[in-house]
Amino acid sequence: MSFTVSALTGDRTERYRQLIAQAEALVAGETDRIANAANLAALVFHALTEVNWVGFYFFDGHELVVGPFQGKPACVRIAIGKGVCGTAADTRKTQLVPDVHAFPGHIACDAETRSEIVVPLVRDNILVGVFDLDSPQPNRFDDVDRKGLESIAQAFLNSLDQVAAAVAPGRDTASGNVVDSEPPTR
Length: 186
Prior knowledge:
With 186 residues, the chain is an alpha+beta fold. It has 5 helices and 8 strands. It has helices at 12-27, 33-47, 83-91, 143-159, 162-167, and strands at residues 53-59, 63-71, 77-79, 95-97, 115-123, 126-135, 170-171, 178-179. The strands form 2 sheets. Strands 3-2-1-6-5-4 form a 6-stranded antiparallel β-sheet, with helices on both faces. It has a two-stranded antiparallel ribbon with strand order 7-8. α1 (12-27) packs parallel to α4. It is globular, with a radius of gyration of 16 Å. The two termini are 30 Å apart.
């Protein structure tokens, strides 16, 4: 597969529209979540300015575990409900944090991070993980970023293979219960 990253032009909304189209094209036809998460983290890390970490944490049925990312080494495990990532996973709501030092219970994986946005990844009422971006700039992320990054997260979720999603452990968003599915028999 050959993929060309195109320079983004226009205002921020237009640049996100272009980035979303690139993200959708990048994951088209590929169902492996690790491959798609790795490529999307690289794409977004290199497309956006003033970010020092872009990546994924996956829910293993008990906690969030670091997945593919771009940036400095990261915290490996994050409890549900702890820090910005754990809060996004617990509430199933995007967390847009202008100053991480003011966020109760913030987990400082990189001391240079000043602001953060975390988009929960939920498919069929099951928590898959979170899509996390950090910036060394306070107030780096806003509603334009939220909308754009939620669309990129949706492109990732849309790329997941139905069978892979069915066998992955997760958390039912309605009840909050951990769900462990058995692999289908063939």
